[in-house]
Automatic annotation (TrEMBL):
Pfam families: Adenine_glyco
Keywords, in A-Z order: Metal-binding, Zinc
Residue numbers binding Zn(2+): C14, H27, H180, C184
Name of protein: DNA-3-methyladenine glycosylase I
Amino acid sequence: MVTAVKCEDGKKRCKWCIATPEYMSYHDTEWGFPVHDDQRLFEKICLEGFQSGLSWRTILTKRENFRKAFKNFDFNKVSKFKESDVERLLKDEGIIRHRGKIEATINNAKMAKLIIKEYDSLANYFWSFKPKQKRKSTKDISTSEESIALSKDLKRRGWKFVGPTTMYAFMQAMGMVNDHAKSCYLRDLV
């Protein structure tokens, strides 16, 4: 069950965000806020892929390094990365140095351009997977019918590191699903 706790400023927040100052800031300014900008969506989906198997705090503390390494997640630029870029990134201590995840980001940049050709934007594509109904429960879950469908469709299109759990986290982060605790002050604001 997702719960909220009262914080020092008197506001109730999702309990998970009190673990670190980075989480609190992320919770209050980003998590669950609807995103429609293609470059920001590409960044979010890539960072969720890099997070797979790691803590989100690791990603947040390295996010600026990721932005620098991946040209602010401009998929037009990243799609042109070559093997020499992969080798350069594998030496970059400021990011997660995982060959598969680095290569997936480059691959996914190419695939993003194809989706844009078909849907006019990544936003149009991703938001087409928005759940038809709001979840009534705030029970902590890690996948949904929609995240499974999004994962399958992305994989069919050649994307990598886009499993159902990763896609559910992406859907939460981009504001497609509102999983703020019922008593969290942001629940009805996002």
